[in-house]
Write a structure and sequence with these properties.
The structure holds 2 protein chains of 2 kinds. Chain A is of the alpha/beta class. Chain A is built from 11 helices and 10 strands. Chain A has one domain: Alpha-Beta Barrel (TIM Barrel). The radius of gyration of chain A is 19 Å and the shape is globular. By secondary structure, chain B is α/β, with parallel strands linked by helices. Chain B folds into 5 domains: 72 residues, Beta-grasp domain (Ubiquitin-like (UB roll)); 82 residues, Ubiquitin-like (UB roll), CATH 3.10.20.880; 149 residues, Domain of unknown function (DUF4445) (Nucleotidyltransferase, domain 5, 2-Layer Sandwich); 152 residues, Nucleotidyltransferase, domain 5; 64 residues, no CATH class. Classes of the chains: A alpha/beta, B alpha/beta.
Chain lengths: 322, 581
């Protein structure tokens, strides 16, 4: 009996992150994602040429409110983004993702120039591709992202987040200074598509766009995020070009928001050791979304990063039909 | 009791009212009608008048003695253009008149033939009409004049008969020409047409604002008003019947006829308007699961509502389909012959809300989507109905924007009516002033098309929401029938956009699907046209029409919301269907 396989008419765009010296950057290596024409890990149905990558989330302010387990795992580097990035990459992360939270007036309101210096320090500390996002305040991020884009022209940073209100500024900065951008939408596949259309109408090459469809962590909307991501992926494979980009998700920040990930064992003895619980919470959020097609997992705990990395490795082994 | 005197300018009208009542109430006493879009809650500031030069909200500000109030034209209800366009009424389609004048000749009674007058008439009438005598009756009030009329005419008499659903009734005995009235009670406007019942021809139309608008631009505000004010429902009924009285008197005076020559009126209105017209409670209409008191209404006597027509004539009320698909839609379906038209047809009525009916072989399905009154100009900075000075068409040629104004080149542009708003939105998109999400790409987040006439960012978003709701409704309808918009043969659009509807603009912005131009037709006021058809053709059974329409409730499930988000883009998230990027 013949083995039935699903053939897709569309495929996900192939996106390269970072640029080495030959291509105008300073990275020691680049990462390539996307390019699939099958559902995740179904490499007997099509090609799934590039495995998902893990970006360690780095903040430019010390994350004092993080759960103790997370802080403990990173030791003393949390106040120093460059040292933090270095430790993350040495510990197994494929790349780093910097959030320039200090630009927010509530977090000190550092200038765009100062923020760019942080990025410079990280770039010098690690050889991997780097992603940079602003503080989340549209008006401020316009200046910060434009500055970072200009200061590191040619590096092919992954810059974000381009949403409905600020896509034009972020897109222009990425186009002019040759970076890749993150198109971000609030858990709505239609808005995701609309922003991609707007970005593509500015003539941004769609192989320099990554989608952030927004996610919820385990127990906090993971199923819904899964279904949005899966719908986007199935739509792209059926030929919808305006959804056919690799997907990024903020696993770490969402998973660690959960009370179940943070609570102390002393408060909830039946929940077991918090040392394992938080890591597993993040891991399960990540591995679930791997099945929905996520391409870049932005994560927090070094142990979770390594477990998920091993999972990706194992799942990516060629499968032969029957 | 102490009275306060209020002096209104520039009308120079003085009224005495009880102190403590609001300026808006005093204005109404003075027959000055103000637009109170928020229902008189003081929330919107659209009814701002000047008291001794100071701006105040008329709906919440109490009067004081010797107050002088200046009412700007912009806050008045009167003077709004109304939709009297009855292009969709085709008089040649009338097959058999609903009201007939029948001349009868009888033998005078004798001692051998002493049958009563009424039976003598019904026997003669039954013979002449070839119907059974039992299905005939004479309206009791008509009996009063019968004996005299019979004898004055030497037993030759003219009976005016009305075909009801289950019988034939003699409404009056008179040789005078007979007339009927078709009435469209809209949320915003009321249109009345005078019709010669012997020919079916429309003699005159009168349009006016629905005075209930004083208690809110939308139906929900008015329903809330009736709940919050004792006697509020009666008040709303009096307002609408008062307006109708005015219109009918206007029509009879202009035509030089007598009110009693008007035998029958046919009323088409949305379900809420019909409820208000009949003073029916609307409490449950606005609450889930949105149940009306009734969808079918027996005819009533004009005298009960003090309408200036034959008191024992008939007021026929067209049946509704559901809470938000009313008799106006039933009328539209009748006017357009949707139930018997070949192919797959869609009827879209864009009024203060959006209703639509999809009709194919063997089915009709309707839905109502809360599009809001944006296309009537409501809630839009410089929006208006199709009045003189309204821009009703905008074109963008090589980045150059030009426009037409109602009233011709001499008229100064003052506002934008529905078709103007649609074509301006399309032009701004074409010119790149706004992006596909409707956001201004320019530094200035407002576009001035003429001095003092602009479209703001909020206006653009309001219009996108309105057009998205309409498009989403269409999509849900066709999807429920497992069909596609591209499979539709004809789309009939009615509503008050202006002198016409800019179809090109409407498809450019994704309010209508991108079908060949020949698939679209603009039908004007189909509610009035349908009422005219019912008035003049007894072969039409409105209850059979409304009963054949299946209502699809869009608030069930999330299909509508999903479609709405997809359509909240210019023209639509599915760009391919609209001709690609």
């Amino acid at each position: 009996m013949p083995y039935l396989t699903e053939k897709s008419s569309g495929s996900i765009s192939t996106v390269v992150l970072g640029a080495t010296k030959e291509n105008g950057g300073t990275r020691g290596y680049t990462l390539t994602i996307g390019g699939q024409n099958s559902l995740p890990f179904q490499n007997y149905e099509g090609v799934d040429p590039h495995r998902a990558v893990i970006a360690a989330e780095i903040l430019d302010i010390e994350p004092v409110s993080w759960p103790d387990e997370l802080k403990k795992a990173w030791g003393g580097v949390l106040g120093d983004p460059a040292a933090w990035a270095k430790k993350a990459v040495e510990g197994g992360a494929d790349m780093v993702y910097i959030k320039l939270l200090s630009a927010d007036p509530d977090n000190g309101g550092r200038s765009a120039n100062d923020c760019a210096e942080t990025v410079r320090a990280v770039l010098e500390a690690v050889p991997c591709p780097v992603a940079v996002q602003g503080c989340g305040v549209d008006e401020i991020d316009k200046g910060v992202i434009s500055k970072v884009a200009e200061a590191f022209a040619g590096e092919n940073l992954l810059l974000g987040l381009a949403g409905q209100e600020n896509y034009a500024t972020v897109t222009a900065a990425c186009m002019v200074h040759k970076h890749t951008l993150i198109s971000s939408s609030p858990l709505d596949i239609n808005i995701c598509k609309q922003i991609n259309i707007l970005i593509s109408e500015m003539n941004m090459p769609m192989n320099r766009v990554v989608i952030d469809p927004s996610i919820g962590g385990l127990g906090y909307g993971l199923e819904y995020s899964y279904s949005v991501m899966e719908r986007g992926r199935i739509g792209s494979l059926q030929g919808d070009k305006m959804l056919a980009m690799p997907v990024i998700g903020f696993i770490g920040s969402e998973a660690w928001k959960a009370k179940e990930a943070q609570a102390h064992e002393s408060d909830f003895p039946k929940w077991g050791s918090e040392a394992e619980r938080g890591v597993l919470w993040e891991t399960i959020t990540a591995t679930s979304l791997l099945q929905a097609g996520i391409d870049i997992l932005v994560m927090r705990h070094p142990d979770a990063i390594n477990i998920v990395k091993a999972q990706i490795e194992a799942l990516s082994q060629p499968v032969t039909a029957a | 009791m102490i009275q306060a005197t209020v002096h209104f300018l520039p009308d120079d009208l003085r009224v005495s009212v009880r102190p403590g009542c609001t300026i808006a109430q005093a204005a109404q006493e003075a027959q000055i009608f103000l637009s109170l879009p928020c229902g008189g809650r003081g929330a919107c500031g659209r009814c701002t008048v000047l008291v001794d030069g100071q701006p105040v909200s008329a709906c919440v500000t109490p009067v004081t003695d010797n107050m002088t109030v200046t009412v700007p034209d912009t806050v008045r209800l009167a003077g709004q253009a109304v939709l009297t366009d009855i292009r969709s009424y085709d008089v040649t389609k009338n097959r058999a008149p609903r009201v007939r004048q029948v001349r009868l000749s009888m033998e005078a009674p004798t001692l051998d033939d002493s049958i009563n007058d009424a039976s003598r008439v019904t026997m003669a009438l039954a013979r002449q009409l070839d119907i059974r005598q039992e299905s005939l009756r004479i309206e009791p009030a008509a009996l009063v004049t019968l004996p005299r009329s019979l004898r004055d005419g030497d037993f030759n008499i003219t009976a005016n008969v009305f075909y009801e659903s289950d019988r034939v009734t003699v409404l009056s005995f008179s040789e005078r020409p007979i007339y009927g009235i078709a009435i469209d009670i809209g949320t915003t406007t009321v249109v009345t047409a005078l019709c010669d019942l012997s020919t079916g021809l429309v003699l005159d139309t009168v349009g006016q604002s629905n005075p209930q608008a004083e208690y809110g631009a939308d139906v929900i505000s008015r329903v809330v008003y009736t709940e919050e004010h004792e006697g509020g429902a009666k008040e709303l009924q009096d307002m609408i019947t008062g307006a109708l009285r005015e219109s009918i008197v206007n029509l009879t005076e202009r035509a030089g006829i007598m009110g009693s020559d008007i035998l029958v009126a046919v009323v088409a209105g949305n379900t809420v308007m019909t409820h208000f017209f009949l003073n029916l409670p609307t409490d449950y209409l606005r609450r889930e699961p949105y149940v009306p008191v009734a969808c079918e209404f027996p005819p009533i006597l004009p005298g009960e509502l003090n309408l200036p027509m034959l008191p024992h004539g008939r007021v026929v009320i067209l049946p509704a389909v559901s809470s938000y698909v009313g008799g106006d839609i039933t009328a539209g379906v009748i006017a357009l012959d949707l139930s018997s038209r070949p192919g797959l047809n869609l009827f879209v009525d864009v009024g203060t809300n959006g209703e639509m009916v999809l009709a194919g072989t063997g089915f009709m399905m309707a839905c109502s989507c809360s599009a809001g009154p944006a296309f009537e100009g409501s809630g839009i900075s410089h929006g208006s109905r199709a009045v003189r000075g309204a821009i009703d068409n905008v074109t963008c040629d090589n980045g150059q924007i030009t426009y037409d104004v109602i009233g011709g080149p001499g008229a100064e542009a003052k506002s934008l009516c529905g078709s103007g708003l649609i074509s301006l939105l399309s032009a701004l998109l074409q010119k790149g002033v706004i992006d596909r999400s409707g956001r201004f790409t320019t530094e200035e987040k407002e576009f001035f098309i003429a001095p003092g006439v602009s479209m703001t960012q909020d206006d653009v978003f309001n219009l996108i929401r309105a057009k998205a709701a309409i498009y989403a409704g269409m999509r849900v309808l066709v999807k429920n029938m497992d069909m596609k918009l591209s499979g539709i043969d004809n789309i009939f659009v009615s509503g008050g956009f202006g002198r016409s509807l800019n179809i090109g603009g409407a498809t450019n912005i994704g309010m209508l699907p991108p079908l060949p131009m020949s698939s679209f037709s603009y039908e004007g006021n189909t509610s009035l046209a349908g009422a005219l058809r019912v008035l003049n053709d007894r072969t039409i059974t409105p209850e059979a029409t409304s009963g054949a329409i299946v209502n699809l409730e869009l608030s069930v499930g999330n299909q509508f919301m999903e479609e709405f988000t997809m359509a909240s883009f210019l023209p639509h998230t599915e760009l391919d269907f609209f001709g690609g990027v």
